[in-house]
Amino acid sequence: MDEVEVVVAHRQRATLRVGDVFLKVDGDPAHAAVEVRAMGLAPVPTPTILWHEPPVLAIAAVPGTALGVLGRPSEASPAAWAAAGAAIRRLHDAPLPPWPGRRLDDVAAELDRECAGLLAEAALLAEAALPAEVVRRNRKIAEAALRPWKPVFVHGDLQITHVFVNGDEVSGVIDWSEAAPGDAMFDLAVLTLGHEDRLDDLLAGYGSDVDRDVIRAWWSLRSLVASRWLIAHGFDPDAPGCEFDVLRARMREP
């Protein structure tokens, strides 16, 4: 019998692997419902759905390896990154999914709330891992993302570990529960978070019609709003190369 591997587990959801089958258990059945619908609509390789009995979704493992891991340099080739960019372009050019995405006002409100929390924590700790000046600097940079966008079909959580490649080809994109109409620059930013040096490789396949300042703003915004959630759910945004390092890196820029 295959061993059960806990891939990720926190209060909201857990993913287990048994052989070549992933079992995703989610407290909110809407997440799995969106994932199933999104994978059926996305014009890119996605996992095969084996069965879905809420609250459990069973999917088959995709071949290949993840494009990389946050906190470590990506070993994938420039061609593999370009292939990922081309796949994301196909997704963004596809018809919009028929459910609503996040509103700009909601994004702005979340940024305000999370920055206020981070600043409050910095005020309580003399040597906070994320000093107030880092929060304020990144909050200013993040403002460039808070502008109206033309909605496209976005993955919504396009972390580097969610894109799999086999050689120089994309073999699968996983974890679609956040898919919705949204900002194309957000997907590009999340995929290159902590791997800013691979943005040119990604855009070689995606196309150059992007706003790099907005991508840079989303690096800051994503890291700011995710940090307290990560800590609360047992993850470490202060690990080398992760969210806190992304935020600190902005302090070294003009």
Main β sheet profile: 5 strands, antiparallel
* Nearest-integer average pLDDT: 94
Assign the CATH architecture.
Alpha-Beta Complex
Number of β-strand runs: 10
Integer tally of domains: 1
Structural class, please?
alpha+beta
Instruction: Find the CATH topology.
Output: Aminoglycoside 3'-phosphotransferase, Chain: A, domain 2
How are strands sequenced across the largest beta sheet? Answer: 1-2-3-5-4
Task: Set down the secondary structure blueprint.
Blueprint (H helix, E strand, L loop, with lengths): L3 E6 L3 E6 L2 E6 L2 H13 L7 E5 L2 E5 L4 E2 L11 H16 L10 H21 L7 H11 L9 E3 L8 E4 L2 E5 L6 E3 L1 H9 L6 H8 L5 H21 L10 H7 L5
Explain this structure.
This protein is an alpha+beta fold and 254 residues long. The chain has one domain (63-252): Alpha-Beta Complex (Aminoglycoside 3'-phosphotransferase, Chain: A, domain 2). 42% of the residues lie in helices and 18% in strands. It is built from eight helices and ten strands. It has helices spanning 29-41, 78-93, 104-124, 132-142, 184-192, 199-206, 212-232, 243-249; strands at 4-9, 13-18, 21-26, 49-53, 56-60, 65-66, 152-154, 163-166, 169-173, 180-182. It has a five-stranded antiparallel sheet with strand order 1-2-3-5-4, covered by helices on one side. Strands 6-8-9 form a three-stranded antiparallel sheet, with helices on one face. It has a two-stranded antiparallel sheet with strand order 7-10. Strand 1 (4-9) and strand 2 (13-18) form a beta hairpin. Helix 3 packs antiparallel against helix 4 (132-142) and helix 5 crosses helix 7 (212-232). The protein is globular.
